[in-house]
Amino acid sequence: MNIRIKIPDKMINNQPYTIREYKIFRLHKDSATNQAIVDILDSVFNSSTNELTFKSDKFSIYVLTYKDTYYSPSYPVTGIKVSPDTLTLTKKGETAQLTAEVTPSYADNKRVTWQSSDEKVATVDENGKVTAVGKGTATITATSVSGSYTATVSVTVKIPVEIQKLTIEAEKETLTKIGESTELKVKIEPENADLQKLIWKSDNEKVATTDENGKVTAVGNGTAEITVTTEDGKITASIMITVKVPDEPTINKSTGFRRLRARSVKQTKTSVTLQWNIIKDADGYFIYGNRCNTGTKSYKYRKLAIITGGDISTWTQKDLKKGTYYKYVVKAYRMVNGKKVVTDISISVHAVTGGGKYGNAKAVSVTQIGNKKNVSKITLKMGKTAQIKAKEVKKDKKIARHRKLCYESSNTKVATVTLDGLIRATGKGTCTIWVYAQNGVYKALKITVK
Which of 318, 328, 319 is closest to 351 using CA atoms? Predict the structure, then answer.
């Protein structure tokens, strides 16, 4: 028969992490031997009704017992992550540590295995230590033993191509102005070398300075060694920069023929061509001019041209009016600290265009010096004087006067000359007296003083 009993509340299992096992013991006597017998009966426990059911074919004494078995709870892995999530290595043999973290943190089995997708790029050991092997990208995978959850890290190995040589290339190695700059360029070998920061330095900042990009600026006369070095200090190159600022130019303050001799060498109906002697160290010339004054109107000089280049010695003004006198002055200049400084000024030149009733002088004729006629040289004693008699020689037509003949000495310590051509011997030596017409043609006289 089936017997069902209700388990008392106090015998119901309410303890966590335990399993309660109920057993029914039956007690009875053996009729033959009159000995006590204990049987364990099969039983089924219904936890929803807290009832225990068993079978028995006898009326006996039944004993209900139970046994509690304790167990530990199970916490499986539900996820995994790895840090850092990306990794870059720059040297062969360089290492980095990856860290795997499973969730939950109290999981029963936290073991993780590691694997690299390309061991020619990077390897990983059982503890997540990554070692760079060669250039490229590899994926490192961490797998949880519990649940086989995975997380990956992208590892990039960039083994740099080292710079072997630096060469400095300069736009110019000599600077001639304070504040002038030049850009230095660097040629890197090999061309595929990984770039590094370059460090620039001047060994003499009183001569030249350099900025972080290799721009060199002149500070003062002298030489400076400009050096460029890779950031790791392994490779260096240098170049010598010279700063040579010209001395301040000597300015011939007085208008003179002895240094800058200008003249008109050609005239057409619509043009006048000027020519002058080249001034040493000149960087160029200014040309000033206008029409010559008339009896009723005056004309101021105006700047007509800037000649760039100290080796140029001619200039032509075109589109002029025929048969008209024009006046010119030539000024030589030098560049000083970025500015044009005038050093010499010519005597004014007056020339007439063709097609009119007036012409230009073709020469200057000296008919007498002192008591000597038709000579181009004379010897005087100190303190003595001699008068020059001279005239302009016309080409073909008469000359309209816009200024008189002019006279000038090359060395006033030897001989001076007045506006009217009177020579006075002032010291022993030799000099030249120039006699020049209004269009700039001239006669040179040699004066010796004993």
Answer: 328
